[in-house]
Design brief:
Layout: E1 4-8, H1 13-24, E2 28-33, E3 48-51, H2 57-64, E4 69-72, H3 80-85, H4 87-91, H5 93-107, E5 111-117, H6 148-166, E6 170-175, E7 178-179, H7 192-206, E8 210-214, E9 220-222, E10 224-225, H8 226-237, E11 245-247, E12 252-254, H9 255-266, E13 271-275, H10 290-296, H11 304-320, H12 325-329
Parallel strand pairs: 1-2, 1-4, 2-3, 4-5, 5-6, 6-11, 7-10, 8-13
Antiparallel strand pairs: 9-12
This protein binds nicotinamide-adenine-dinucleotide.
Amino acid sequence: MRKKITICGGGGFIGGHLAGVFLKQGHAVRCVDRKPQTAWYQRHDNAENLTLDLQNADACVAALQGADECYNLAADMGGMGFIENNKALCMLSVLINTHLLVAARKLGVRRFFYASSACVYAAGKQTETANPGLKEEDAYPAMPEDGYGWEKLFSERMCRHFREDFGVQTRVARFHNVYGPFGTFDGGREKAPAAICRKVIAALMAGKNEIEIWGDGLQTRSFMYIDDCLKGISAITSSDILQPINLGSDEMVSINQLVDIVEEIAGVKLRRNYNLSAPKGVRGRSSDNTLIKRLLGWAPGIRLRDGMEKTYAWIYDQMKGGLSKDSVFNVH
Ligand code: NAD
């Protein structure tokens, strides 16, 4: 059945990819983003593309007019460097989800997907590098990432209560670090996989043999390739899973191991300067996928090495093409 789908944050990394998937499936897609359309990572000509600030209630009504489904991927966000230094901006995203839920209720939108984050998990569960994988119940008692994580946790609960009290069919995924082509790799909002690719490429282009690593490199994370994420979003949205559920990889690596992978792809070995005062986030984090495997049969299919190869190639082309000259010299 052909559906009318609104993707909020459609000019962003995940939203741009998701729009491509739904368009290929033959759905009518409306992408909405605050950024000017020339700055969208992907702009699909066969979609309806709107530039609106979804912190405004009227904009949310315009965005969801006639929509069967809403995917809320719009948020002021970035990697650790951004969220640690912009807590109020991150929390203002609560306006987006709140106004979208109100509009979805008013307009009778049939499904509402909300992109939450592993940043909702309690800090006390992430103090060791040998993280066993965060289970859904580890979000409570609550002590999430300050700013960004609190906003995500609050918005998860708004989704729950709009469903329970008003019947809006909300579904929530907790994304663990998503990476891939057509995403942020410079400017301050980038996350570790893209940042490391950029630093290695910038060092190569500048003829330097060193890079800076944030923290001691021993902190651990898992990273999910965009294609796995897109399959998970569709599966969760069409499912009957009402609780927020992990959508992430359980292939945990240290940041040093991630740098090893990028160096291997690039065919270089660089000196690592560890900046211990840079934003580092929690000590260890990975996704426990027991629940999503059991309920949906979903598991990530793309190994980190393979996804990073595609990501590196895309960032390399952007930088080689001079699309991001600043980043060539900005090896931070
Ligand atoms: P992104 O920054 O590439 O995309 C978000 C988009 O939202 C941006 O294009 C931005 O312009 C837009 N936006 C922000 N404020 C807006 C507003 N007021 N009105 C309209 N548009 C607005 O980020 P992404 O990586 O695609 O992430 C998508 C969602 O997934 C976000 O909610 C994010 O918090 C969540 N998430 C992402 C990751 C990840 O690793 N990428 C991890 C956890 C959660």
